[in-house]
Structures are given as C-alpha cells and as structure tokens.
C-alpha cells in the first residue's frame, strides 16, 4: 500500500528542481512576510479595512497584464532568463520599500505603488517558474512536485505571517522589510544554476498573434477553462484575508499577533495536507478531486463566518484582551480551508502541466497565475466592500455558501471535466 506521507522522489530525480524549490521556498517566505507587514502598515496609517483590501485590488490590472505578457515571454525566450529578470525587479522594489521605511518617508501611496510592482513582477516569475517544472521532471512525478509546492506555500504562509506579526509588534516595519530583502537572494541561486530552457516546438514572439494563439487553445481546452472558473469562484467569494487586521483589533482581540495567527492557520492546513499527500497524488480522477476539494473549502469558510457571528455577542476585546476560544475555532476553520485549497491546487497544477504542450505552457501558466493571484484580489474587494456596509462576519458566511452552490452547479454542467483522468490527460 502506498505511504500516506509526501512523495520525495522529485528531489532524487532532479537536482535542478531541488535548487529551484529551495530558492522558491525561502523567497516566498520573505514575500509573505512583506505582504502581511504591508497590510498592517496600511491599517496603522488608515484604520480602514477597505484601504487594506485596496492593497490587493490596486495590483489587479497590472498583475493581469504582467501575467499574460510574462506567459508570452516564457513561450518565446529562455525561461531561465525571463524568471531572473522578474526576480531582479521584485528585489529592487522590496529594497526600495525597506529604504523608504527606514528613512521614515513611506506613505500610503508608496505602499500601494510598490505592492503593484511586486505583484506584476511576481506574476511573470511565477508563470515562468511553473512552466519550467515539467522540463525538469517526468510526467508521473508532476503531482508529487505540486504537493512539494504545497510544503513551500505552507512554510511561506505559516511562518511568514506569524513572524510578521511578531516582528511588527516588537521591532517595527523596517526590520521586517529588510529580512525579505535578504531572503530574496536565495531565488537568484535557484534560478542561476538552471540550464538554458527555451520552449520546445513552434515559437511565436510576444504580441497579438501569440495572445490570439493562446486564446484559441484555451477555447478548445474545456478542462483547463473549467478549473480556472472554479478557482475564481472559490477565491472571489471565499477569501477573507482582508478582514484579518480588523478582526485582531475589533472582534477577536490580540492585534497584529492574531492577524499573523489567522493567516498562519491557513498555511498550517496547506502544510499538513501536503505532508500527508502520498495517497492524494495517486488519485487519478483530478476533476472530481477539484470539485470535492473546493466544496470542502467553501464549507470551511462558511464555518469561519459562523465563528465570527458568535463573536458579536461576546464582551469587547483589545490588543491585550482576547476571545481565545473564538481565535482557536477560527484558526481550525481556516486550517481546513488551507488543506482543501491545497488539494485542489495539486490537481489543478498537475492538470495544467501534464495536458498543455510545452510551447504554449507559459501562456496558459500566465493565465493560471492571473487566476490564482487575481481571484484573491477580487475576494479582497468583495470582502472589503461587503464588510463596510454590513458586519465582519457576513462576507465569509455568505461567501462560503455561494462557493458550495456555484461549484456544484458548474461541475454538473461539465461531465467531461468530472471524468478527467490523469493517466490520459486531455486539456
């Protein structure tokens, strides 16, 4: 019987994959550290949940454009060089953020602008790095590589936000941004040691013809298109991250430490589900796996909203007075959402990498990155706007229910997606 523990064969199969994984993990840790710190920074300057949500929303259009164009670059040029250039831009913007903070010159607009630059550069980098992986590993190990990516995400989100909350509370913002600058150096090691990786097959230079070619492929690729739609649905209605700073101040107590704990709980679920993914990666019916995992995600977000609803009837809180029971219950619900989302991500990523030809994989990965990172930004807008006119508990309660219902309806209309077989991948 296969082991329930994570499959480590990708590390043994490819040293290049191993180095890229280590670099991505350390760089992602620093990136999440900065993301949560920027949220806390904006909330301190504005005391507005809507302003926090706009950190994510402001980068949406640039991120979409960068993801699409970055995918075209990855399908036309050496993917190693494209990823390195994107990493340099991300490094420079993070360094500037640290310098401005140490000089006490940071403003709400600088935080927005540099967050936008980071989002755009990360879209290009992530699309390119993801398109590289199928060139480093055989197809039968792609699901295992996706599970290892879940370990990366788990470490990023579990350690980064918790550390951000502690560092901001104890040392301020400057040191937190500076640590990200140092951690980002690991990405250059992981990318620099890769071989040259030009796309295989017919190459179309970036431009309108390349975009049209990718769009025509996507029109024929019903399974890929459906997974995009399902993920956007889940992230738009079931992503409550923009609420965390306000929850730590107004409803649960504990301030920045609670904000970090809530974010880290999602990562804990991601980490544990990858750690025990040995049997998950061997399940061949990826369409069904995606459907069930996203509906479980919706149920967890609904439970999170229910926990917050209970909180409105309890005594007031502060940074030193907390509703510990509610914090624990909220963290458990969010851990479940992280586990469910990670299982869906394993199947979605493997479907993308296994069924899409190499010479178009960059463009499809660019769209995939736009979906994965753009969906939460739409979710931030949904949560921020709805919380502003209602209560903090209402957006996740309604959103979780919408995710469950909408996903069930969409998959019922697409029997081919539900029958997707990883042993015979078809886009």
Automatic annotation (TrEMBL):
Its main location: membrane. Keywords: Cell membrane, Membrane, Transmembrane, Transmembrane helix, Transport. Coiled coil: none annotated. GO terms for molecular function: transmembrane transporter activity. The chain crosses the membrane at residues 20-43, 49-70, 82-103, 109-127, 147-169, 175-197, 228-247, 253-276, 296-316, 322-343, 364-387, 393-411. Residues 16-418 form the Major facilitator superfamily (MFS) profile domain. This is MFS family permease.
């Amino acid at each position: 019987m296969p082991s329930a523990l994570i499959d480590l064969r990708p590390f043994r199969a490819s040293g290049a994959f191993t180095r890229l994984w280590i670099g991505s993990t350390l760089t992602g840790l620093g990136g999440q550290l900065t993301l949560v710190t920027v949220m806390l920074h904006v909330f301190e300057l504005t005391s507005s949940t809507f302003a926090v949500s706009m950190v994510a929303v402001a980068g949406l259009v640039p991120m979409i454009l960068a993801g699409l164009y970055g995918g075209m670059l990855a399908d036309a040029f050496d993917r190693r060089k494209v990823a390195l250039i994107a990493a340099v831009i991300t490094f420079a913007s993070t360094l500037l953020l640290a310098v401005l903070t140490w000089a006490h010159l940071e403003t709400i607009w600088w935080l927005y602008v540099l967050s936008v630059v980071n989002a755009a550069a990360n879209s290009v980098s992530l699309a390119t790095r993801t398109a590289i992986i199928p060139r480093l590993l055989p197809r039968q190990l792609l699901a295992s590589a996706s599970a290892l990516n879940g370990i990366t995400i788990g470490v990023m989100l579990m350690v980064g936000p918790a550390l951000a909350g502690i560092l901001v509370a104890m040392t301020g913002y400057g040191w937190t941004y500076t640590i990200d600058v140092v951690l980002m150096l690991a990405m250059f090691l992981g990318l620099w040691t890769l071989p040259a990786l030009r796309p295989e097959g017919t190459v179309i230079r970036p431009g309108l013809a390349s975009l049209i070619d990718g769009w025509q492929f996507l029109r024929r690729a019903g399974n890929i298109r459906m997974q995009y739609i399902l993920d956007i649905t889940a992230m738009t209605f079931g992503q409550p991250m923009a609420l965390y700073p306000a929850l730590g101040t107004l409803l649960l107590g504990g301030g920045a430490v609670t904000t970090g704990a809530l974010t880290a709980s999602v990562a804990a679920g991601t980490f544990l589900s990858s750690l025990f993914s040995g049997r998950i990666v061997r399940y061949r019916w990826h369409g069904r796996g995606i459907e069930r995992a996203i509906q479980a995600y919706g149920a967890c977000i609904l439970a999170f909203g229910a926990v917050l609803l209970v909180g409105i009837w309890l005594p007031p809180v502060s940074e030193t007075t907390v509703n510990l029971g509610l914090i624990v219950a909220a963290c458990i619900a969010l851990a479940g959402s992280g586990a469910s989302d990670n299982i869906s991500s394993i199947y979605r990523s493997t479907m993308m990498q296994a069924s899409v030809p190499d010479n178009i994989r960059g463009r499809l990965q660019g769209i995939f990155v736009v979906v994965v990172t753009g969906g939460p930004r739409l979710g931030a807008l949904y949560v921020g706007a709805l919380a502003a006119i209602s209560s903090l508990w209402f957006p996740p309660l309604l959103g979780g229910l919408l995710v469950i219902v909408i996903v069930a309806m969409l998959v019922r209309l697409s029997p081919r997606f539900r029958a997707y077989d990883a042993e015979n991948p078809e886009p």
